[in-house]
Write a structure and sequence with these properties.
- It is a single chain.
- This protein is an alpha+beta fold.
- It folds into 2 domains: 244 residues, Beta-lactamase; 214 residues, no CATH class.
- The chain contains 12 helices and 21 strands.
- It has a 5-stranded antiparallel sheet, sandwiched between helices.
- The protein is globular and about 80 Å long.
Length: 491
């Protein structure tokens, strides 16, 4: 039988052995202990500790101690939660009422009778100012205003000027091999309909076909007006269509459309993005009954061109709601580029210049504040492999934004749990949180504000980021986030 002296000698060794075994066999070991329900959620999700960065803190109390912090100083890829940094900087530097301006100019210099009997002897120039929301409906308004000038026929060219942005040409397949996905569209000072065609499929049982409507219509591009119907289950109707978008001169459907699908809408990025604006403007102009005797082409407004009118965009606050609720990458990049365009309109905006503007803004706000190292920013949208920020820094940014005059506009732009946008399928309590989501094949994230269910008017900042090359870990993250949201709301 061991004596007390024996136990005094053995117990420390057993304690050390237990610690070693815990380190060896416990994949989820946290920087601070978690409440039992959260600990259980992490264990169920099988997400390793080194893949996660978390921060939960009172939104309205400066310098408050966090309720939860884990690897808060680790630089993580935030995916689309980086849009929060772009949003906060833009709201602060530009203001919620900021609008983008698209100019229409007329160049009829040296031509007899600029406009006569509905004919313009000259060129129409559309000069982009970075409007992120120059969609089909608003482009139609712009073209109608050209018609209201008395112009039915343009005996010249339609010149499209996108020189306000200096963006290098990119391969839309470079990021993930999905060139037809609208989220891979590149920014443009004259961005029309996100460089995407919206196809609406409507079954017509009498004709045994589904009609296909294209917005915008693209001049000179073969686009089938219908596709055969099938009696198959709806399922993956896009695969059933066997669409071929590889030829920029035509769209083809080699399959059929299941009539059980009803009406569906599918957006695709056009195969030749550099030609999209010219094709869309001409196609819509001619579809409205206008005539263009010249060509629709890229170019810059000549010095002698006269301003006819300006089309203002919706406000930044309105644009930001679409951008954040639906995580629109190209809109975010448009906004990011606008930071440098607004800072110095004498030269084209660029990613490099906007990174400098954002870095200066960050330094002015945070200086040498501990834990507030400037984020690594690429294009401001989160569609990047190189962007990085810590959960602690993002949480502090959200705390500061909560005390800022633009707080209502920022929160209104974020998806609500179970209600809308990218959080409409969240299993957390309905409407309990406004959070920006982030998703890449190696990233899952949530960041924003959670309402307390116990104390009226109290809100918490929540930042949760998972980085992992294991698809199973990323797949489990949304359920884990819902548990974290529910725990935060219960505080």
């Amino acid at each position: 039988m061991p004596t007390m002296r024996d136990l005094e000698f053995v117990m420390p060794l057993l304690s050390k052995l237990a610690s070693c075994l815990l380190l060896l066999f416990a994949p989820t070991l946290w920087a601070q202990s978690l409440p039992a329900d959260l600990e259980a959620a992490f264990v169920r999700a099988r997400i390793p500790k080194e893949a996660v960065s978390l921060y939960v803190v009172d939104a309205g109390v400066a310098n408050a101690a966090p309720l939860l912090a884990h690897r808060a100083s680790a630089a993580m890829n935030p995916a689309s939660t980086m849009k929060l940094v772009t949003s906060a900087a833009a709201l602060d530097l530009l203001g919620p009422a900021y609008t983008w301006q698209t100019q229409v100019l007329i160049d009829a210099a040296g031509k007899d009778g600029a406009i006569k009997n509905g004919v313009l002897n000259g060129d129409v120039i559309i000069k982009g100012g970075g409007d992120p929301k120059l969609v089909v409906e608003r482009l139609g308004l712009l073209l109608n205003r050209i018609r209201s000038l008395g112009i039915q026929t343009i005996n010249g060219d339609m010149v499209l000027d996108n020189s306000a942005f200096a963006v290098p040409a990119t391969n839309p397949a470079a990021f993930d091999g999905e060139p037809s996905k609208p989220y891979n569209a590149s920014p443009d000072a004259l961005l029309i309909n996100y460089k995407s065609v919206v196809m609406t499929f409507t079954p017509n049982a009498w004709a045994n076909a589904a009609s296909v409507q294209y917005d915008p219509p693209l001049a000179g591009i073969a686009m089938p007006a219908s596709v055969p119907l099938s009696n198959a289950d709806c399922g993956d109707y896009r695969s059933a269509l066997r669409a071929d978008f590889s030829d920029a001169k035509r769209i083809r459907f080699l399959g059929s459309y299941p009539k059980s699908c009803g009406e569906r809408v599918w957006s695709i990025a056009y195969a030749d993005p550099s030609a999209f604006a010219a094709l869309a403007v001409r196609g819509l102009w001619e579809g409205m009954g206008g005539k263009l005797l010249g060509i629709s082409r890229a170019g810059q407004a000549p010095a002698q061109a006269k301003l006819a009118f300006t089309l203002a965009s919706p406000s930044l606050a309105d644009v930001m709601r679409d951008m954040n609720k639906f995580s629109n990458n190209v809109m975010a990049q448009q906004l990011f580029l606008t930071l440098s365009l607004n800072a110095d309109s004498s030269k084209p905006a660029s990613f490099e210049a906007s990174r400098a503007v954002l870095a200066a803004w960050w330094r002015a706000r945070y200086g040498a504040t501990a834990g507030m190292d400037a984020p690594t920013v690429d294009n401001g949208s989160g569609l990047s492999r190189s962007e990085r920020i810590t959960s602690g820094a993002l949480a502090r940014l959200l705390q500061d934004a909560y005390a800022a005059p633009f707080m209502p506009e920022l929160i209104a732009s974020l998806p609500q749990t179970g209600v809308d946008g990218t959080l409409r399928n969240s299993k957390a309590a309905l409407g309990i949180a406004h959070l920006k989501t982030g998703s890449l094949n190696s990233v899952a994230a949530r960041a924003g504000y959670v309402d307390s269910q116990k104390t009226l008017g109290k809100r918490y900042v929540l930042v949760a980021i998972v980085n992992s090359d294991n698809p199973a870990v990323i797949a489990q993250a949304p359920g884990l986030f819902d548990a974290l949201i529910s725990w935060t709301a219960a505080q």
